[in-house]
Structure prediction request, 370 residues.
Amino acid sequence: MSEWFETTDGLWAALWDALRDGVADARHPARRPTFATVSPDGWPEARTVVLRTADAQAAALTVHTDLQSDKIKSLQANPRGALHVWVPEKDLQIRLQGHVAIASGDAIRPLWAEIPDHAQQSYGVIPAPGTPIPEALDYVKAPDPATFAVLNCAVTQVDLVHLGKDHRRAQFSRVRHWQGQWLSP
Amino acid sequence: MSEWFETTDGLWAALWDALRDGVADARHPARRPTFATVSPDGWPEARTVVLRTADAQAAALTVHTDLQSDKIKSLQANPRGALHVWVPEKDLQIRLQGHVAIASGDAIRPLWAEIPDHAQQSYGVIPAPGTPIPEALDYVKAPDPATFAVLNCAVTQVDLVHLGKDHRRAQFSRVRHWQGQWLSP
Prediction:
């Protein structure tokens, strides 16, 4: 009987377990991955996002955001994202890359209706996020389904590193049908 | 008396306190930021790094890496990096961007000599990091000062978000001499 991190199948399963735990449990580290994009002028950017869904079958993830946020401008210019999570209890580093499609408007109105009132507060602020303001609190929250957006990330590549007594690193890609490949760590 | 997060000066001080704590304390969240770069083919990338120094006066950070790692190829093509840390005890999100210079060879030999033996193990592996290998452990560690590199990051921009009862967001940039500017969150 091998440990989960000794096979690429075990690592792959641990990846989706962690992402599902993140969706289900607000305190799990995979709940708040770091999401990296490239700005329109070519700078790397990184910020915390909240993971909303993780579909192992489709290898797809979703994140919610404000349609006026900087990451939308970046994704419109370069629709590629990277997600990073460190899972301490598994000594596992998760790195994903994927194509990101932005959904908003009528298509996601049913989703908006399901979001609790207090959470709707996270979408819509006046002035728009990132606008300079004279004082820290010179803004108002203005929950608005028109500024709510869903980022649909179709994962194309995954890189997992298990930091154990020995380090193990494996890569998985959609074009190789997620068949794992060991890499030198 | 205001809280530290109620002034841009207070946020700026909290930033460098956190980074210094990260350098000094292996268990502090700022010890292991997420470092984002842009790959030569334009993909965002993110991975954990270990923060080695943080100089508030110069607004400069350093990270050590293996000269054969992917992030070196990325930084050679696009010498810009972004660093992201979430500091739970302060409800503070730190986002930095900066120009990254790669130092290696004789210039940093004195630094290599100061690294404990067990830590030198992190620099130098055969085959090079990211090389496909048949089995998970088909590699050998080969500590080698020739593959040791220091990333010197000259910060150009900082974005801080404090998630409190009210959210506060401030931006700081080198060109504005780090004078804080409130932003809509």
Q: What stands out?
A: The two ends of chain B are 24 Å apart (CA to CA). Chain B touches chain A through 48 residues (CB under 8 Å).
